[in-house]
């Protein structure tokens, strides 16, 4: 699963020959392993491996360069896709640490997936719509926040209590 977390993004796939997708900091690898154990594996057991589609995982420094070139809507300071990676000044890219991924469960309303994720040890969840991938993160100090993003990409507290 770690390899898939590091190589699943469309940008990596497009520029794979030019990007080192793997973490430099061993703490990043440990956080990715914990994300897999505490979030991804239970989701796969609940909804089935055949339905699980990882769309974005770990963001290496090389991948970040290509995402910035393409003017992607990413926010490395808070989204935890860079895990424990550090910049050239030795500071963490993201102050929340932990690790994050985006995924979809094919054929399942994202609100139903969020209802299940709420039972797990998550840090943050981003909801973009019923048929869009979900962002979920894990951290040593979980905040347990769920955000819904409007069509203008503005976050607001998630208030949809979907009944399973």
TrEMBL record:
<protein>
    <recommendedName>
        <fullName>Peptidase M15A C-terminal domain-containing protein</fullName>
    </recommendedName>
</protein>
<dbReference type="InterPro" id="IPR009045">
    <property type="entry name" value="Zn_M74/Hedgehog-like"/>
</dbReference>
